[in-house]
Amino acid sequence: MDWSNFEIRNGWTLGDFKYKGNSVTGFSEQGKEKVKTNKYLSIPNFIYVDEKKEIKQNIMKISDYAFEGYGLKSVSIAKNIEEIGEGAFEDNDIEYAIFYGNLKPLNKLAFKKNPRMTLFLANPKADADDLKKVKELFTNIRNLDLSQLKMIRYLPYNLFFGMDLNVVILPPNLTAIGANAFGFNKLKSVKLPKSLKIIGSCAFTSNELKFVILPDSVEDIGTEAFSVNEITRIDFSKNLKSISYMAFANNKIEKLSIPDSVEIIKSKAFLNNPIQKLRLGNNIEKIGVDSFPSTKEVEKELFRVAMENG
């Protein structure tokens, strides 16, 4: 068996790389030719140290500047990697980085000068500490895929605040999103999982969301949770009881239908929206001050509810 021809994935073989001990240090001459036409890199998991006995050694490290400046479009990092050096993938055009392990070995300058990355965390055992590393280690990701993180139930306060994210795919079993978790990004869309119950204060404030679909699992929406976006449409949870202070203020909502489950709408919940058509549910008990803009149609609907509630 010629170990150098052992295929990894995406057309790469063990012979396409140079090694030093348990480190991959860059491309071999063969690899330098291949990367001219194949920009989708997969890092090897192991190398044979005794070809005849088929004894393998895990690759544990990616050396400093190992793959700098090759115009790479994507890279996948094996789960056994324990160290990724400074500038290891610097100055490429990486659009997709896949991590099968955790982020702890990553030098914060490893992916410098890759301005539009999607980060895909593919380790189903990743925890909150791994997620906290994202903001610390990456300043250049635009999209974040957490769809494989099945153990994550809660996203902490300020987790991805101010990162200029465009798209995020949330963990499938998520139950709560902490305050400001995605505040002040550039999110254009977000799909909320069917397990989600609590959306914290300012969780998605100051983004570019156009619409929001709240799954029926959602029971609580915090203060200013979706304020200052570009929302034109909301599909509400059928189990939502209360809409918090300024929860959807400063958006572009023209038509609004509040479900029968909602009992309380707090002050300024929909302030500064161009609402022209409003339908309130049948179980409204309290509407706070300045919950809606003062238009003829809105006043008419508020009057109807007031008369029905005596």
Describe, in plain words, how this protein is organized in 3D.
- There is one protein chain.
- With 310 residues, the chain is mostly beta strands.
- Helices cover 9% and strands 24% of the residues.
- The protein has helices at 29-34, 128-137, 296-308, and strands spanning 17-20, 23-27, 40-42, 46-50, 55-58, 61-62, 74-77, 83-84, 96-99, 117-121, 141-145, 154-155, 167-169, 176-177, 189-191, 198-199, 211-213, 220-221, 233-235, 242-243, 255-257, 264-265, 277-279, 286-287.
- The longest helix has 13 residues, at 296-308.
- The protein starts with 16 loop residues before the first strand and ends with a helix.
- The mean pLDDT is 92.
Quick recap:
It is built from three helices and 24 strands. It is mostly beta strands and 310 residues long.
Quickly list its features.
single chain, 310 residues, mainly beta, 7-stranded parallel beta sheet, 4-stranded mixed beta sheet, 3 helices, 24 strands, 9% helix, elongated
